[in-house]
Amino acid sequence: MARRPMMLPDYSIGMRNPEMTLGEKIWQINWIMILLTTLVASTGFAMLYSAANGNMDPWASRQITRFAIGLAIMLTVALVDVRIWFRHAYLIYLAGLALLVAVELVGETGMGARRWIDLGFIQLQPSEVMKVAVILALARHFHGMASEEVGRLGNLLIPMLLIAAPTALVLKQPDLGTSIMLAAVGAAVFFCAGVRLWKFAAVGAAGLALIPIAWQFLHEYQRARVLNFLNPESDPLGSGYHLFQSKIALGSGGLFGKGFLLGTQSHLNFLPEKHTDFIFTMFAEEFGMVGGLTLLGLYALLLAFGFAIGLRARNQFGRLLAIGLTCNLFFYVFINIAMVMGLIPVVGVPLPLISYGGTAMLTVMGGLGLVMSVYIHRDIRIPRRGPGDDL
Amino acid sequence: MALKQESQDSAKTFTRRALLVGGAQGLLLSALAARMYYLQIVEADRYVTLAEDNRVNLRLIPPPRGRIVDRLGIPMALNQQNYRVVLVREQAREVEPILDSLAQIISLSEHDYRRILREVSRKRAFVPVTVQDYLTWEQVSRIEVNAPDLPGVSIEVGQTRHYPYSEALTHILGYVSAVSERELTGDPLLELPGFRIGKQGIEKQYDNALRGSAGNSHLEVNALGRVIRELSRDEGTPGRDLVLTVDAELQTFVHKRLENELSASAVVMDIHNGDVLALASAPGFDPSIFNVGMSNETWQALINDPLAPLTNKAIAGQYAPGSTYKMIVALAAMESGIGSDHRVFCPGHMTLGNAKFHCWKRHGHGWVDMVEAIKQSCDVFFYDVARKAGIDRIAEVSKRFGLGATTGIDLPGEQPGTIPTRDWKLATTGEPWQMGETLVSAIGQGFVLSTPLQLAVMTARLANGGKAVTPRLTRPATDSGEAKEPPSMNISPAMLRVLHHSMDLVVNHQRGTAYGARIDIDGKEMAGKTGTSQVRRISLAERAAGVYKNEDLPWRRRDHALFVAYAPVHAPRYCCAVVVDHGGSVSKAAAPIARDILLETQVRDPAVNPPIQLVAGDPARAQGS
Is 0.85 exceeded by the ipTM? Predict the structure, then answer.
């Protein structure tokens, strides 16, 4: 990965707190990232149009509206000084945690799990918001630590709690996919902050030891999904049906696909959840491996930008924030596509920017906005104890 | 500067680790690409097939069943449209109020309600559920008129087998009914709901030809099974129409005539080519009850009826032929060298060892020769010649005349009867043959058993000059008519003349046993032979008590009355065998029936109209009307 990606204007290293005007900031916006985001989202619009058998309603039109809102949020977030995000990181985290508790108390139930709060204009899923909030909080926490401080076991207790609290709440909903993602994203930030590898090994070993106990806490349908993952074709009409139909759809797409609006598996409803979790399957059925690889390439480019920005940032908060958010995007992409291709068990993780669903789209775009904010304010140095109140 | 140093350390660590994370992500994304290659390129063929299997649903189109017509082309079994009212939940939304409205037009029992609601809740919303079958035309029109108030209700048309002659032809045609579990052969056609196959008679015998072959329709369906569109369609082959040798009107006449008796059967045959013109067994049953489905009580009543309405007695009833067997014994005697002028004195009985064998005429016939013995059916004469000819020679002649083995008529369920020989008895009972048994066999009693059809075949072979005709209900497709002569049995014409003369006298001589049943119309006279099949011997005690006649016994114990005949006497064309179960006196029961049948046959003269030829594979005909 390039150390210096394209189009980065070269600020002199010695520059201190370069206060930027709004015009300068707008000039600094990474328009290629916005283009990539729009391209991916447009693929989503096309697929939602196809999922509705060639209709803008009920999905594509609403998704476009959300994307427009998301774009506005993304740009706004990008233009806000990264120090403000730094200052409010814990507040955002606490707000997210409060929402998670709230959903437990007043949340709406879907598929047997409490997942969202109905705000009227959007069904807010606090667990999605929480992914970004956890990264913000962790980035802020590790920002203030020197290498040797990171090495001390006691200093890891608070960040581990920062991850454990929302993970436990989300697992209780129950939403296995999101809680795995929370833990994984947290682990990625830990790793990049310099936590020793043997500590990961220790936690990993402990995690493995806990699997039999965790199995007891899993819901029946979650266990069934894991078991079906291990042998999906044993029971093609039972709970392994979805995955099997997904593989048929993908496989029958072949190299070039069946053509737009012509996916038989999708349009004859053999494919479940084709507008949400299994939308990649539908895309690969209609556009084949060529289409699938192209989409994968777009995501890879978006991720590459995220990494480049992280590497380029001159403050630890920005670096960790950019990498954390990029990893978050990666986990979305990887878990979703690996799931529909039968590489991992079926867990409810949407394909970012493409699957129908408001919260995921807005949080992913908000996250990208944060990454862009890190980019725009890449040369700003933030003191160990945080920026002063002069901002 | 310590601070700066530290943050540079963090930055270095970060860069190293971020690159590691990025590399790992790159690897994992490559794994996704590899998986995509595996599914979409390597395994693509398999998944393409599976996707097609998902998408395409093969639906069978049941072929219309072939019609069965008589020799003149009159339909005896055909398909009728039957109307049923069905309900589609999806369109009806509220099922119960609609059933309530329907109940004002058709009668729906509490049981029907429950069945319909159960089916509606089980099946998918777009699958029609049958509310009632076999609607009358009036009900159909009332439902159609009220259609706007009955959303989701529609009329469907199905096909039912219809038998216009009902009972008169059941035993020939058989019937169709739903396929039972053990009749499933793996042919998916048989698994179609409502599909019917032949269960008896011609319907069973020629089921495959009548059935035709199923067409199919390739339908694109969605995951719920709803049909999206038809991809292709193959109409299949309709069942073949079948022409029988039967004359439906004559058959109806015969059946009606037999219905005057409690239980009887008759066969009318063309003696030259074996065409069966009528074959009836009374009582019969209404074949449509099997199609519609019957109550358990009806079924129990049918199978427990002592008159065995379900049995085709003309081919499956085995009777001792009685004196109708005497022509065979006479021929065996002549072939063993006994002349037709052989004379025997009949004192009313014959003594063999300690046993006394009675003649039916208590005081005897006096001196009789062969012709006289057949004419008056003298038992003692036949005791005498049978002793001389021997049982095995009698059996050999019997077999040449088609007795003791199935005739091979194209109907299921035919029985072979029994013609005893010395070896047969040893093999079946383990005991040696007794001379007394030869005497009993000589008058067609004891072990000898035959079906009415076998007796008709025997009579035909006697009347046609010794040609081995076999009975048939259909003509082979290649047979263009009368071309093929049945093989000759090489019987001396002189001997046959003796038998013909005797059978003429039986009916047309005033001392003949069937003189009372003669046909007194010039050129239509018949010849024949009476027979009585003993159900049980009248015991000495009963004789002492004055029981001599069958009329004095309860019905179940009375003798069967048999009569075989052919006509016209001098240029024979038709033969007939009649058996009246427990009919008692032959001259009162069987012979008059045979007379009426043969007279009617000669009046109709079906032989002048050979069975019609149908144009093969004409679907319009197979559709019926």
Answer: yes
